[in-house]
Design goal:
The complex is a heterodimer of chains A (about 120) and B (about 290). With about 120 residues, chain A is α/β, with parallel strands linked by helices. Chain A has 5 helices and 5 strands, in the order βαβαβαβαβα. In chain A, helix 2 packs parallel to helix 3. Chain B has 2 domains: about 130 residues, no CATH class; about 160 residues, CheC-like (Chemotaxis protein chec, 3-Layer(aba) Sandwich). Chain B contains 13 helices and 8 strands. In chain B, helix 10 packs across helix 11. The model of chain B has no long low-confidence stretch (mean pLDDT about 85). The chains are: A alpha/beta (about 120), B alpha+beta (about 290). At the A-B interface, helix 1 of A face helix 13 of B.
C-alpha cells in the first residue's frame, strides 16, 4: 500500500484522514500544517501520494501544488477542500492535481479517490 | 418529530419522567395509531365522543369508524382521511399516554389544547411536525415567514445546517423559533464569513461544555477542554457546512467563497441587514445557529 503525506492546517482533518487511510492499509509517512512545511516534507520523504488542503496559511494549497509539481512532475496530489465546486478546484485540476476530495470526509470516497490516483500512471 | 416536541412539553408538565418519555419514543416505531387518538388530534371528535364510541364498541361488534359515523360524530370523508393517516403515521405519544393509564382521553384533549396554546403551533404546523420531513419542519422554525431574498437564503442555509447536525452530531434535535436581533453576544463561538456574490457572517454559539461535546462528536475524539483541537473541530464543522452551502449556490451561478473560519471568545456580532438566531436543543445542550447578512 501507499506512503502518504498529509498537508493540512486542521489537526482534526489530519487525524480523520490518518484514521481513514490506516483503514485502507496506507501508511501516513508525514504531516505538515502549511504549504511551506509541506513542500519541505515532500522533498524529504518522497511520498507516493500527497493529500493537500486548499486553504492554508503561509503558502496555500494551490501554490504548494505548483511547487510540488515543479519538484516532481508526475507527483500524485489529491486536493482537499470544503468547496467541491468553484474556480479554485478547476485551477487546481488545470495546474495538475490528480483529483480532489471534499469535506466532510466519507471514508469510502477517500479510499476510492486514493486508489484511483495510485492506479493512474 | 411531533412526539419529541410534545414529549418535551409533557416533561415540563411532570406527567412523565425522562426515562418514561424515552421508552415511549423507542416504542413508537412498532405500533399503529388508534383512530380515536387521531380523531381528537384532528379536532373531528371530542374525548367524550371517543369514549362513547369505545363503550358502544363493547356492546356492538362494529368498527370504531362505523359507529362514529352512525352516531353522527364523523363524516365519511373525515373517516377516509383518518384511515389514510393511520396507515402512514407513527403511533403518537397521546395514545401511549392513554393506553398506559397516564391520562384519560379527556385529559389528553386538554393537554393537547394547552400545548397548542403554549407552543403557538397552528394545526397545520402540528401536521408538519408529524410528517417528519426535516426541511418542512425547519421551515416552521426558521423565521417569521417573511418573503425576502435574505430569508430564502437563510432558510436554505439552516435546512442544510440541521441536516448536517443530524448527520454528524445528534439526531435528537429540537428547534425553537428563530429571532432577529440587533446584536448577538456570546462567550464563545465559531464563525466564518461567506464572501462573493453574497456577504454572510455565519456561526455556531453555545456554552463551553456544549461546544466541547459538539467538537468531540464531530472530531470523533475524547475532548474535555476547549483546546486547539476542539476549536479546530468547530471551525471545520462550519467550514464543511459552508462549503456545501457555497457549492449548492455555485450550481445556480452564484459565486461565493469562504474566509478562514475562526473561534472568538466573549465577542459580539452586530446586525447587518438581518441577524437571525436559530436556537436548537440537542441531547447534550443548546446551540444557536447565527446567520448575519
Amino acid at each position: 500500500m501507499a506512503h502518504i503525506l498529509i498537508i493540512d492546517d486542521s489537526a482534526m482533518s489530519r487525524n480523520k484522514l490518518k484514521k481513514i487511510l490506516a483503514g485502507g492499509n496506507h501508511t501516513v509517512v508525514g504531516e505538515a500544517q502549511d504549504g511551506i512545511e509541506g513542500l519541505d516534507r515532500f522533498k524529504e520523504l518522497s511520498p507516493d501520494l500527497v493529500t493537500l488542503d486548499v486553504t492554508m496559511p503561509k503558502m496555500d494549497g494551490l501554490q504548494c501544488l505548483k511547487e510540488i509539481l515543479a519538484e516532481k512532475g508526475d507527483a500524485k496530489v489529491i486536493m482537499i477542500t470544503a468547496l467541491g465546486k468553484g474556480d479554485t478546484m478547476l485551477d487546481a485540476l488545470n495546474a495538475g492535481a490528480t483529483n480532489y476530495i471534499t469535506k466532510p470526509f466519507e471514508d469510502a470516497n477517500v479510499l476510492d479517490v486514493v486508489a484511483d490516483a495510485l492506479n493512474q500512471r | 418529530m411531533f412526539n419529541k416536541y410534545f414529549g418535551n412539553f409533557i416533561l415540563t408538565q411532570k406527567i412523565l419522567n425522562k426515562d418514561q418519555i424515552k421508552e415511549i419514543l423507542s416504542k413508537q416505531q412498532s405500533a399503529r395509531a388508534k383512530l380515536g387518538v387521531l380523531a381528537i388530534e384532528s379536532g373531528y371528535m371530542t374525548a367524550f365522543h371517543v369514549d362513547r364510541v369505545h363503550k358502544l364498541q363493547v356492546l356492538h361488534d362494529k368498527k370504531f369508524g362505523e359507529i362514529a359515523i352512525s352516531e353522527g360524530y364523523l363524516q365519511e370523508s373525515q373517516l377516509t382521511e383518518l384511515l389514510a393517516k393511520q396507515k402512514t403515521s407513527q403511533i403518537m405519544i397521546g395514545q401511549i399516554l392513554v393506553d398506559g393509564g397516564f391520562l384519560t382521553y379527556e385529559g389528553y384533549e386538554k393537554l393537547l389544547a394547552e400545548y397548542k396554546k403554549e407552543s403557538g403551533f397552528t394545526d397545520q404546523e402540528i401536521e408538519i411536525l408529524k410528517s417528519n420531513n426535516t426541511d418542512d419542519i425547519v421551515g416552521i422554525f426558521a423565521g417569521d415567514g417573511e418573503n425576502s431574498s435574505t430569508f430564502e437564503l437563510y432558510s436554505e442555509y439552516v435546512e442544510l445546517f440541521i441536516r448536517n447536525i443530524v448527520r454528524f452530531i445528534d439526531t435528537d434535535i429540537i428547534l425553537d423559533r428563530a429571532y432577529n436581533i440587533p446584536s448577538y453576544q456570546s462567550k464563545g463561538f465559531a464563525v466564518q464569513e461567506i464572501i462573493g456574490d453574497h456577504l454572510i457572517e455565519t456561526g455556531i454559539a453555545a456554552e463551553e461544555d456544549v461546544l466541547i461535546r459538539f467538537a468531540s462528536i464531530y472530531a470523533d475524539e475524547p475532548l474535555v477542554n476547549l483546546d486547539a483541537l476542539a476549536k479546530d473541530a468547530l471551525g471545520e464543522f462550519m467550514n464543511s457546512q459552508n462549503g456545501l452551502f457555497v457549492s449548492n449556490l455555485y450550481h445556480r451561478n452564484i459565486n461565493c467563497n469562504l474566509n478562514p473560519q475562526q473561534f472568538i471568545y466573549d465577542a459580539g456580532i452586530q446586525q447587518r441587514d438581518r441577524l437571525l438566531v436559530l436556537p436548537c436543543e440537542l441531547s447534550f445542550g443548546k446551540i444557536n445557529i447565527i446567520f448575519n447578512r
